[in-house]
Structure prediction request, 462 residues.
Amino acid sequence: MSCFDHDQSRRAFLKRGAALGLAGVATPFVTSLAAIGEAAAATSTDYKALVCIFLYGGNDYANTLPPYDTTGYNQYQAARSVLAIDRAALAATALTPSTALPNGRQYALAPTMASLLPLFNAGKLAVALNVGTLVQPTTKAQYTANSVRLPPKLFSHNDQQSYFQASNPEGATTGWGGRIGDLFQSGNSSSTLTCINTSGNAVYLTGSSAVQYAVGTGGPIALINNSTTLYSSATAMSTLKSMITGSSTNILANEHAKVTKRALDTYTQLSGALAGAPAANFPLFPTGNSLADQLKMVARMISVSAELGAKRQVFFVSLGGFDMHDFLLRDHPTLIGRVADAMKAFYDTTAALGVADKVTTFTASDFGRTLQANDDGSDHGWGSHHFVMGGAVNGQKFYGTAPAIGNGTPDDVGQGRLLPTISVDQYAATLASWFGVSSGQMSTVLPNINNYNPSTWNLGFV
Prediction:
């Protein structure tokens, strides 16, 4: 059975969600007691999903979340020169947190991210300030003296992508999403549908035993022709399947057959379930947005999670193009706007499905970028700001410490590269704790977490 009793009820409820989504999330997603009842019936009692949105290339933190207070903005403008967003353009997207930042600090969303403002104001979106890859707590003096362990090959795309996803540089064999999957896959009817990737292979989703299952934006990827016949022959198709899935005395051939059979069985199971949740039933997502297409697929899978017997799922979606050494002012607003629009549509859809509090979505990236302009772009950096979204999120708040703005500050290791004050391990541990990972299991998921005081493992944003 899917999250909905039948297609008609799903379609009707999503249509209501679509209409309400246009009005912003500050308004409740239900208009009647009947709608409330339907939403409650649609919600799985023991389901959680963690959704990673990875921004490949290193997202520019300073133009994603620019300073808005007068002093901070002036420092930002002085350091960014030609790259600074005009302050007047930020007035409509200035963030008003429920708890003010110290010293009058303020931030605004990039103007093209305005679609996320209602989520922040409704407490469904939080900001984690200055997150980055670390091995252990690190001060600027320790960094300068090279007296603590640092992530290998800082500022390298491949290595820092891997370190963010796996706590190890390029060549890592498992990631923390996959290691979470290791702990929970036995609770799912099909362990294969625990770690799901809509954008190709990523070490983040690989576990010691959990494997990542790839789906396309249109659904699961067929291993062989979907037809029941081969060259117009049902016997030929049946024979081919028997050949590629049959047992063998050869160890490697036998393992290959097991993997092939698992892929064919999962394809049949998932495609059958998704047939009851056609893409047309998810009208909130914008077109011409590849990230939105991926998140729509995630939403469709979540909508049939009960039918699939899934209790815990970890998803990975991504968007590339953030390595903007040039044309940042031209290209970054469009790209980050796509991220915001896709996230808003995804949240509104989970709310319409009645599972918003069961799904937590977060952003990640190789690293931040330099505050200082590099002609009309920015260079590779380190710490960055990230968003956490969902019905269980303690939103309308900033978590962490707002970094000093400028070059040569206590938070700067060169050209406005932020020295992270929240490690990826702490960021991930907070998410993992919500998902159900115990404190005793945390070091299995995050091998560096014991370098931090346990009191700082959970940052409280979810």
